[in-house]
Amino acid sequence: MKPRALVTGASRGIGAAIAEALAAAGHPIILNYRSDDAAAEAVAARIRAAGGEVVLSRFDVGDDAAADAAMNAILADPRPLGVLVNNAGIARDAPFPALERADWEAVLRTSLGGFYNVTRPVIMPMVRRKWGRIITMSSVSAQLGNRGQVAYAAAKAGVIGATKSLALELARKGVTVNAVSPGLVDTDMIKDVPLDHVMPRIPAQRLGTAPEVAALVAFLASDAAAYITGQVIGINGGMV
């Protein structure tokens, strides 16, 4: 049986698609979400209807105490946790002079604090088993920059640095660490983006889809990706 997979921020969009793809690949899923019970239950229902196994784990990855308690409970299960997908993230977009300190801190707390809170507890169990997959979602905004997204781009660039450094620490331990960097993907997160403005920047001349991103993540979580680590893999229609 394949190891369990924890996907954070998985009640909708890319996270939901990743949870479903990993379940289809045979991983029992731990579906993390922050607040939307109905959306999380809907994703779980789809996974179960397709024959997969899933449990819900409601906590804010950026809340240190809540994350510690949740991760302790997750790791208390004797079944190994072999795949971690750090997908949870938020955006608080504004021109930098208008960006409030609370919004800056919230964005970094979720992406970077969340990375620390969720990733650190799983590392030694993976090392002891000599197998693990840590995949963190970055963004094309981290690579190119984007007006009004100083906080979001900084947070997503931060996880690239964390990914590369952690990959060096774990490369000899059978644990791979990679980042996936989507471009514009057709989810609720970009519902207010003026497509006539951004489409000329996409050589493929279309938006990506959540299942396309999920398929890439599922590959990185597989045995076939054992020699891929420390990489930032773009899925952006040619933007980078």
From TrEMBL:
Keywords: Oxidoreductase
SUPFAM superfamilies hit by this protein: NAD(P)-binding Rossmann-fold domains
Ketoreductase domain segment(s): 3-183
GO molecular function: 3-oxoacyl-[acyl-carrier-protein] reductase (NADPH) activity
EC number: 1.1.1.100
Highest taxon in the source lineage: Bacteria
NCBIfam families linked to this entry: PRK05653.1-5, PRK12826.1-2
Similarity comment: family membership: Belongs to the short-chain dehydrogenases/reductases (SDR) family.
Name used for this protein in its record: 3-oxoacyl-ACP reductase FabG
